[in-house]
């Protein structure tokens, strides 16, 4: 590269820094030539700190830190001056979107790829992770290429003729950009300080797009809280690297007041201390603190967030709204339910003005368009409508206009706690995907996304059942085969519903049921054996799917990291073979239910447990001896432990689960009889005053059951 060429790039970087902007540089063509060009260019550019996302042995400059694309989350809350992304080695959408948000004002993001004209047929190495390899066409990549080709802010460089590249010449700004606090941010800091000095049990939730200065505001607020007398301010996040910015701003604000500055801990004169603890260490140690700050909260499982919320008097949660992790808005929606229930006086705070780059920065809107990070669902229908007004039709996202696609994907994001850019790729590219759209007039009011799974060879299905094999995809068939023990679950073909989304203003109008009915008809038309779904178990969702004709066939043993709920799988047979399998799966779950409850699901929400028990086939018939024991427990002095076997047996007798679900003592019954939790634990939860009181309450339930309940 000539000195003149290097100077042109230096001038561009200087001017971008003055303007507070960033640019994507698309290097198209032969990978070896692209790397050779970068090795000649990079020594002339500012690249500290910089990242290389590709094989460490091919890093084009020693000043770049090698990082695997799958570990991009580690850089949340940090900044880079320059990033080189080797797309020839794979392009996980979540990782690319994450890294783009770390690029600071004046930064460049180099993307090494084939020419745009080849993207639709490019066999991206990352596809092997998802089962999308060896497809002739990739609508997701084709759409990315169209967006990039149409964006004037993208700098395109030909690896074969890099000297032919035309660099932009943005004009000098009237006022050079500087990373400085905005009025928005100063106001937020004041709000956070008032929160940290204020009343207990009034948590705050801070949500904003990336680059708005959330972490900096938390750091400045933490410093001011220590100055005003708080002794312990704790910070947690998915990784200590995530809080670099927070600690840097706290350190700058405290300046000479700091007497100790060690890894993850600042102490000032007077004994005030700001300290980082990993999430699980925080919950295990339970240290005292007046304030706890949770940064990048959307990347932390919901059950852990709830424990933090209830464990300290003042908790602040910070989360990205339109983030690569796809969890920001879902986090706000999902966690709002917990906040409303546990701490109804919580506060919602936000930031809108960018701090780390200028408002006119072209990289942020480009990445948002590429991955639909800011996709919003449709506006609600302008007037009331009836079921007859709903029109349901097949929807092919790869053929949709960008406006229709953004509207539909926005529905999926808003309806689910975690919908990521990788989901967008899977939805567009997977040939097994099936979708239906519900419309009222020209307004989209609902969307269903499903995927055809199963149909595996008999020998492979047997190996999956034995736990000897696992193949990509086929979530529902593999889960049912390996955990429930039926190889035919993997051999049969089913349509698994991945998402059902209904727009605000159109709920409770039958839209969801109409979508599921359309999916069922489509599955029957394809000759599939079953319609199924898998989701984080909750009473409302269980009730919805029950109304759609599906029945529970498996409850997972471990909570989902994303939803914090136990995965619940439901099925409806469509063919004779599928109907027979669904019945056998449900019978098997019912047979194992009482044995597994205290061991596998000791913390399952009582209402959900009762609703599941009600939907399972009755497995128990009481004998005369059983009825005599129940009578002795209800009207005599027969002890609880001696009566426990028959109480559990009665729980699964015909019609008893539904009857128990209407009793005021349901939570006590579930905890003591089904989950077999200790009396002291039940007392601590306020379900009884102790063992004697608890037993008396259960005796009263059995007296009611014998007197007015279903026939035993």
**Strand percentage:** 15-25%
Counting H and I runs of at least 4 residues, what is the number of helices? Answer: 26
Q: How does the helix and strand content classify structurally?
A: alpha/beta
Backbone CA Rg: 29 Å
Short recap of the structure:
The chain is α/β, with parallel strands linked by helices and 712 residues long. It has 26 helices and 21 strands.
What does this structure look like?
There is one protein chain. The chain has 712 residues and is an alpha/beta fold. 41% of the residues lie in helices and 18% in strands. The protein is built from 26 helices and 21 strands. The strands form 3 sheets. An 8-stranded mixed sheet has the order 9-10-11-8-12-13-7-14, with helices on both faces. The protein has a 7-stranded mixed sheet with strand order 15-16-17-18-19-21-20, sandwiched between helices. It has a 6-stranded parallel sheet with strand order 3-2-4-5-1-6, with helices on both faces. A hairpin with a 2-residue loop joins strand 9 and strand 10. Mean pLDDT is 91; it is low at 323-328.
Helix and strand topology:
Layout: H1 3-19, E1 23-28, H2 31-41, E2 50-53, E3 64-66, E4 80-86, H3 93-100, E5 103-113, H4 139-150, E6 155-158, H5 183-197, E7 204-208, H6 214-227, E8 232-236, H7 244-254, E9 258-262, E10 265-268, E11 273-276, H8 279-285, E12 291-294, H9 302-311, E13 315-320, H10 328-342, E14 347-351, H11 363-371, E15 390-394, H12 402-415, H13 421-429, E16 433-440, E17 443-454, H14 458-465, H15 475-484, H16 488-491, E18 493-502, H17 511-525, E19 530-536, H18 539-547, E20 551-555, E21 567-573, H19 576-600, H20 606-615, H21 624-635, H22 640-651, H23 656-660, H24 666-674, H25 679-684, H26 691-708
Parallel strand pairs: 1-5, 1-6, 2-3, 2-4, 4-5, 7-13, 7-14, 8-11, 8-12, 12-13, 18-19
Antiparallel strand pairs: 9-10, 10-11, 15-16, 16-17, 17-18, 19-21, 20-21
Helix pairs in contact: 4-11, 5-6, 6-7, 8-9, 9-10, 14-15, 20-24, 21-22, 21-26
């Amino acid at each position: 590269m000539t000195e003149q060429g290097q100077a042109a790039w230096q001038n561009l970087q200087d001017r971008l820094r003055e303007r507070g902007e960033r640019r994507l540089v698309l290097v198209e063509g032969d990978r070896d030539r692209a790397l050779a060009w970068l090795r000649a260019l990079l020594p002339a550019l500012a690249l500290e700190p910089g990242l290389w996302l590709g094989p460490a042995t091919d890093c084009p400059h020693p000043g770049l830190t090698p990082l695997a694309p799958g570990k991009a989350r580690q850089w949340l809350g940090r900044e880079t001056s320059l990033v080189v992304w080797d797309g020839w080695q794979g392009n996980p959408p979540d990782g690319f979107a994450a890294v783009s948000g770390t690029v600071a004002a004046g930064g460049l993001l180099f993307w090494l790829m084939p020419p745009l004209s080849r993207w639709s047929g490019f066999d991206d190495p990352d596809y092997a992770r998802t089962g999308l390899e060896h497809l002739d066409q990739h609508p997701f990549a084709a759409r990315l290429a169209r967006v990039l080709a149409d964006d004037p802010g993208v700098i395109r460089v030909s690896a074969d003729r890099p000297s032919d590249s035309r660099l932009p010449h943005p004009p000098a700004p009237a006022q050079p950009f500087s990373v400085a606090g905005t009025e928005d941010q100063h106001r937020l800091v004041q709000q956070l300080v008032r929160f940290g000095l204020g009343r207990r049990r009034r948590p705050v939730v801070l949500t904003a797009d990336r680059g708005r200065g959330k972490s900096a505001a938390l750091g400045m607020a933490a410093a001011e809280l220590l100055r005003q007398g708080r002794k312990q301010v704790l910070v947690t996040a998915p990784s200590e690297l995530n809080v670099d910015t927070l600690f840097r701003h706290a350190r700058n604000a405290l300046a000479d007041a700091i007497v100790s500055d060690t890894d993850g801990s600042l102490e000032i004169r007077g004994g005030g201390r700001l300290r980082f603890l990993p999430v699980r260490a925080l919950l295990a140690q339970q240290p005292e603190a007046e304030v706890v700050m949770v940064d990048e909260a959307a990347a932390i499982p919901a059950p852990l967030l709830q424990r933090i919320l209830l464990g300290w008097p003042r908790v602040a949660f910070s989360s990205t709204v339109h983030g690569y992790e796809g969890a920001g808005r879902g986090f706000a929606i999902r966690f709002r339910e917990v906040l409303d229930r546990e701490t109804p006086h919580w506060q919602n705070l936000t930031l809108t003005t960018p701090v780390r780059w200028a408002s006119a920065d072209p990289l942020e809107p480009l990445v948002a368009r590429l991955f639909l990070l800011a996709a919003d669902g449709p506006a609600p229908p302008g007037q009331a409508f009836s079921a007859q007004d709903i029109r349901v039709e097949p929807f092919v996202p790869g053929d949709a206009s960008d406006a229709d696609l953004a509207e539909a994907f926005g529905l999926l994001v808003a309806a689910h706690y975690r919908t990521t850019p990788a989901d967008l790729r899977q939805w567009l590219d997977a040939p097994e995907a099936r979708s239906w759209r519900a419309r009222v007039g020209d307004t989209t009011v609902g969307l269903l996304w499903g995927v055809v799974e199963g149909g595996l060879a008999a020998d492979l299905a047997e190996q999956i059942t034995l736990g000897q094999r696992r193949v990509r995809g086929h979530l529902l068939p593999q889960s049912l085969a390996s955990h429930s023990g039926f190889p035919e679950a993997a051999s049969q073909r089913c349509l698994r519903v991945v998402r059902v989304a209904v727009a605000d203003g159109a709920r409770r109008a039958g839209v969801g049921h109409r979508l599921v009915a359309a999916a069922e008809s489509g599955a029957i038309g394809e000759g599939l054996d079953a319609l199924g779904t898998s989701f984080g178990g909750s009473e409302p969702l269980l009730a919805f799917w029950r109304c759609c004709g599906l029945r529970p066939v498996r409850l997972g043993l471990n909570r989902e990291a994303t939803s914090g709920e136990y995965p619940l799988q439901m099925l409806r047979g469509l063919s004779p073979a599928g109907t027979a399998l669904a019945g056998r799966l449900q019978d098997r779950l019912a047979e194992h239910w009482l044995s597994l409850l205290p061991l596998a699901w000791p913390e399952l929400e009582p209402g959900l447990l009762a609703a599941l028990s009600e939907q399972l086939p009755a497995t128990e018939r009481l004998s005369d001896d059983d009825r005599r024991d129940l009578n002795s427990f209800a009207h005599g002095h027969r002890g609880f432990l001696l009566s426990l076997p028959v109480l559990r047996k009665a729980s699964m007798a015909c019609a008893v689960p539904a009857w128990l679900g209407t009793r005021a003592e349901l939570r006590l019954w579930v905890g003591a009889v089904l989950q077999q939790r200790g009396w002291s634990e039940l007392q601590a939860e306020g379900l009884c005053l102790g063992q004697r009181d608890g037993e008396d309450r259960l005796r009263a339930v059995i007296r009611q059951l014998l007197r007015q309940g279903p026939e035993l």
